[in-house]
Automatic annotation (TrEMBL), chain B:
It comes from Pseudoalteromonas obscura. Residues 94-105 have a biased composition (Basic and acidic residues). Residues 6-88 form the Carrier domain. Residues 91-111 are annotated as: Disordered. This is Phosphopantetheine-binding protein. Pfam families: PP-binding. SUPFAM superfamilies: ACP-like. It comes from the Bacteria.
Amino acid sequence: MENKKGTIVISGGSRGLGFEIASQFLQQGYTVATFSRGSTEHVTALADDPRFFWKSVDGSDYQALTEFLKEAQQRLGNIVGLVNNAAIGADGVLSTMRTSDIDRALDVNLKAQIYLSKLVSKKLLQNRDGFIINISSIMGVRGLPGVSIYSATKAAMDGMTRSLAKELGRKGIRVNSVSPGYFASDMVKDLSDDILGKIERRTPLGRLGTQSEIAKLVLFLATEGHFITGQNIVIDGGFTC
Amino acid sequence: MLDTQQVKNEVLDSIIQEVATILSEKSLPITQLESATAFSELSLTSLDLAELISNLEARYEVDPFEELVAITSVVTIDDLAAAYTLGLSGQPEGTHDALSEELKAIKNQTR
């Protein structure tokens, strides 16, 4: 299937923020290719939609990613953008964390996104146009106890954003990070009401963000932000200001 | 079936065509492009070379730089063509498949 606007690749688009981003791109007339480890009711519901392609892929498997992108392009047409969204939490005091949990977080949050950026940037170079948006976090710019590995992966991703923006800018390819603060998602579902109340009080706008607000920022950077590259846009209601 | 020299000649033509396009789009002088021409002589940036390689990869559906060849070893147009020839045929240019030749000889003897 070929479409005029093109195909957006989204890692981890089967649930949560990733699925919200996928939905908003679909609403704007793009086709969407996404992958995750497991299926969800969201992707099952879209299984018959010819504008949407989901596959079970381990993002740290370079060969599997290569085949996924080939299949995505064959099914949906020209790839015009990438949203590196997949991530897992890695909570805990570093000295007591299992090395396997550290490795897994590095694989999902960083290695997979680097592999995907390498592969998709080839497609964008062929087009001399396009964008990469890395979904980072305020944990990449602010410290917090218990999230050192998560923070490290997000800060690393922001570093990639800046260097890749300089590397690819001459070919018309934009690279940015979006760093959400606390928003309603699986990542905060286990926080107590007391903690959530404290977060809201520390947030100048007095509430958590929503997935829709973050997805709209991603969509803006992709479709309207033609002179924005190499930036990390924080969307946190003022939490870090 | 194409032999490795034919494959290489076809790849060489593609590379020269792609390089000429890039030079033209950058308004750079298109000098005489030959297999011995070094990329460093052409005022192309490393990003231009990345674009060239992306286009070749899309055309031939093979990435010789993933394992077979080090990108740093590519100096001339000929080096790049040799890399893709290796990626496409699994053999360096001009090599002969000795086993195939031997089997062919045996077949001829039994006829």
